[in-house]
Amino acid sequence: MSEHxxxxxxxxxxxxxxxxxxxxxxxLQAHEAGVGAEAQPEEQPQTQPRRSPRGQxxxxxxxxxxxxxxxxxxLIPPTLPEIVTAFEESTAPPSYSEDSNDFTLEVxxxxxxxxxxxxxxxxxxxxxxxxxPEDTAPGxxxxxxxxxxxxDDPAMVxxxxxxxxxxxxxxxxxxxxxxxxxxxxxxxPPITVEAEIPPMVIPDPWPSPVDYVALTLSALALLAAxxxxxxxxxxxxxxxxx
Amino acid sequence: xxxxxxxxSVWFAAFYERHVDTVYRVCxxxxxxxxDTEDATQDIFLKVLAKTPExxxxxHEKAWLIRVAINRCKDLLKSSWNKRLDMESIPEPIAPDxxxxxxxxxxxxxxxxxxxxxxxxxxxxxxEGYNASEIAELLDKPHSTIRNYLSDARKVLRxxxxxxxxx
Lengths: 242, 167
Known about the structure:
Helix content of chain B: over 70%
Distance between the termini of chain A: 68 Å
Structural class of chain B: mainly alpha
Order of helices and strands of chain A: HHHEEHEH
Number of strands of chain A: 3
Largest interface: A-B, 28 and 42 residues
Strand content of chain A: 5-15%
Number of helices of chain B: 8
Structural class of chain A: mainly alpha
Shape of chain B: globular
Distance between the termini of chain B: 46 Å
Shape of chain A: elongated
Oligomer: heterodimer
Largest sheet of chain A: 3 strands, antiparallel
Strand content of chain B: under 5%
Radius of gyration of chain A: 47 Å
Radius of gyration of chain B: 17 Å
Largest sheet of chain B: none
Order of helices and strands of chain B: HHHHHHHH
């Protein structure tokens, strides 16, 4: 019978006599030792109960996370778009744009009348120039304005040509301008300013997704700071009640 | 806790003789290790000395001890030391102190190879003589669960040992 086999097997699983005696002695010895060990502290004078450090309120435990959250909330909105832009620039392939907007802007002493010389072949590409040279006062303009077209200036009109000795027209104009300007009382040589005007970017009225992400992260950090502050206050009140 | 007097010593000696085998077997069934079994048995009897619970009958004593022994063994098996050692991977000789009869050893080896829950149920049902409801109370499990445990254990033992088992 299998059940008998099982019972016999369990019968043989019990402790032998030596083990029984050993365990009984161990139990009695441990009991007496336990009694002796418990009797000793009763005789000793009671000392001040030690407060566990967990029960105390530690300001640093809450102040550091709050400060970190506030710092995060303050730094994320301005820095995240820059980081993303820098990352995009670093990872984007180099662009080869053939659009050349470079031109030289020549500003004479008269800010209102300036001459434009485009470097490339861009006829008719005239842009208003309101820039004033730094070392020129507003009222410090020449009395005689220099026309842009030399043909408009009677002083620059070439003298009646005589057959056989006709100088080049450009040379004549240049000399006329030089003479005219040199005679002006507040003459200053023309200042040439080379400015590179970036392509016009129309500002997007809506914030970019990066801005949204930055604002969301900042808001979350602020919420975390508020949550930690509430917990700190509750913990402080609990320790005060104790 | 006080030092055992003459009367208590006699009472405890009788109590120990009555129940040490049961407690030892329960612990051995769970722990499968002689040294741990002896430690657990001593712990349980020390608890009796420390608490001196009042029992209504011998059966009450036995049931209380079995329950305490099972809980103690579960605690020991859950302890970090046992988890770290991974007792299943250590080959433990089955009943080294037992008589070297092969049939007992092989039967015991089969029972010990069963999962923990099935092993306890088989021991309590076939050796201690508890029924499924009493085992359910002792192990703090539903009656149907105990019936399933017993059924599974019988199925395994029937395949290995042959013969019939009382349903």
